[in-house]
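The records we work with from here on pair a chain with its fold. Taken together, the tokens spell out the fold as the letters spell out the chain. To see the layout at work, look at the sequence and tokens printed below.
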Amino acid sequence: MFKFYTIPSEDIIDKLIGEEATIKLSSAFNLNDPYELKFNLDIDPLAEGHEKEYYKNNPGSSVQDFEDWKKHATEHDGYTWYAEQQQRNSVAQTIALCSFTDKNDNNLMWSHYTNNHKGICIEYKPELFEYLKTQKGYLVFWKVNYSDEPPIVKGLDDVNQKVEKLMFNKQSEWKYESEHRIVFLSDKDTEFIPIERKFIKAIYIGSRADTDIDKKILSVCNNTDIEVYYGITLGKTYKVHFEKYKNGTIYSRAFWR
């Protein structure tokens, strides 16, 4: 699996691939898609099970309270919309995630997530995800589904069903990302999970990365098993390809360098 990173300064390189390497989790509120976690709620107040669920979520309520809720949910068109936003916000405030992809040669990904090919892409070994599944707060690791319409969430879906539908569905326009997500319970905007460097297989340096970034990565990866590759955008095709670093070799990566 691969993950793209913008590198605003050399310090972040140590945090990502140094001796005390980490994986960054971000709150669902901080994701770049304004339609993130969007869904369509299907509530049938008369369906069997709603009464039990109502009292579970509203302890101390009376039978009349439940009847009032049924009437309100049935007769007010805005109720479903309000309930959707309430549940969407509730999930977003308690969930953090980290996104990966199964390919590293997509030009759009390099442009969008590495500051126009100036950042890096890290390849992680499969063992990383087995390790992350043992960490506190882990919920689920799954591939994102892409569709033209938001998923339908039933009023009586349990928490796990709701999280899976909200967290693993995106618009079809994002399909090029081929995204996989690992999701944790967290109320923080940003959180870093320590990992061992043995889980890092390779680093791919963007074709427009600054020379200082190159040197820092080579220094950090020196005397480790982490392979280093340069992204090459010169040639006869639009496809990004990679050449493994070899000491003493000069890599012509982008025509404006």
About this structure: The longest helix spans residues 78-92.
